[in-house]
Specification:
40% of the residues lie in helices and 15% in strands. It is α/β, with parallel strands linked by helices.
Length: 521
Amino acid sequence: MSFSKANRSAATLTTTRVAPAPGSGICVTCLDGCKGPCEIGKSAIKGREVLYPMPFGKITAGSEKDYPVDFSHFNIQGTAVGAKGIEADPDKATFPAVDTTTKLGADGSIKLDFPVFTGAVGSTDIARINWEDVAVGAAISGVMVVAGENICGMDSKAQFKKGKVVKSPEMERRVDAFKRWYDGTGGIIVQANVEDTTLGVPEYVIQKLGIEIFELKWGQGAKDIGGEVKLHSLERALELKSRGYIVLPDPTKPAIQAAFKAGGITEFERHSRLGMVEEKAFHKSVAHLRSLGAKYVTLKTGAYRPADLARAIKYASDAKIDLLTIDGAGGGTGMSPWRMMNEWGIPTVQLECLTYQMCEKLAARGAYIPPIAIAGGLSLEDHIFKALALGAPYVKAICLGRAMLTAAMVGKTHGRLMKDKMESEDESIADGYVQLFAVGAQLRERFGKDFDKLPAGAIGMYSYIDRLKQGLQQFMAGARKFALPYIDRNDLVALTRDAADVSGIAYVMDSDREEIDKILG
């Protein structure tokens, strides 16, 4: 059985002429004279441009690899007995009474109304274009939004002195969009990579923009290299090259400039550098961020080999950071090498199971375990429950990358269509939003005259989270767990022997065996 699709993918806008050979993905009969709709053929013309999902700036992409074990290989256990977190009374233990709030931070002082936050919404076009919808959606939903890497470095209007950023209108726009609607629940995280650190982004956003939660980034689940974007003008390529980024092909070379003007090269790539993790340097960075005034310091790591996961957990424990986000392979991207996204890294289920094992070892020695969040291809309420349960009691929140953007983008699209309709009929956009969105009336009551100032995408994201909340409440009530801390690994059952072996969760036919024997005498 093949888990991957080689040499053709909707993500790279490629296909094969006839059925492919399972291993290579090449057509079983490769025809001389074919123009090459496959990935190999397209690469013969466009080369490195075919490495990435297309079209850049208009899509997010998720791995199409069918991993041997995923969250669908587990089911959620229900019970007809008792209740935890509430009195076992049918009039009180109703699913709307389930508490879905969570607390993050070493001291538990970051409060979320729902245990999710966005993926890093960084410097790609799709992230920039949809930022306000996502940020406002997070603010009104009481969850967190993450401003990703390279925002200041990519800002054409940013001002620098002695190589350090002193003003970035784009970063200010990002922060202001969230803070205008922030009511004290949730938060905004700003993330930094190698270039951000070199450009002085931590100092700028913490000291000048008042950012309280700052995230160090080791990587993500979509790739094992730094972030990248595509650039469609020579001027932009030269600008970012001058700011210290890796730009390919090199826009300073006359031959490359000539090729771009002739049309042989249609775009450039801006790449970030690889971070080099060292224990002493990590602790020094955490101490520096705290000295700048960061109230909370977090870490985002990717689907690296298990030893690197151990480093992330141990270093985070020793530094007593406030959140560790662990991103598994197969999740989402705005731009990552497509084959890398499918064929690199530890998948989310296996990565979370390794996380649980490592946390258990540290906890047995009385070590501090930071609140942990899991990311990597999660989207709906069953995923949230399963990920919380699989890593219980250490996993406190779930990072939803593509899913949040999807909800915001769909809300934005329908909002634009509704606005055009209401304007043509000379009616208010607020009335249109109430007609369009299931949550429109409640948000109108909550925000009053400011309701029509909400971006439509933010309403869409709020509506999506509202759906997730009720869905999670229903699962939790069925498991008789009326608050998140009561969810544990026994709330899951493995449907396959492979899933049981990977996770340590009981195989379905072995579940409750001891209790069954007691009941049956």
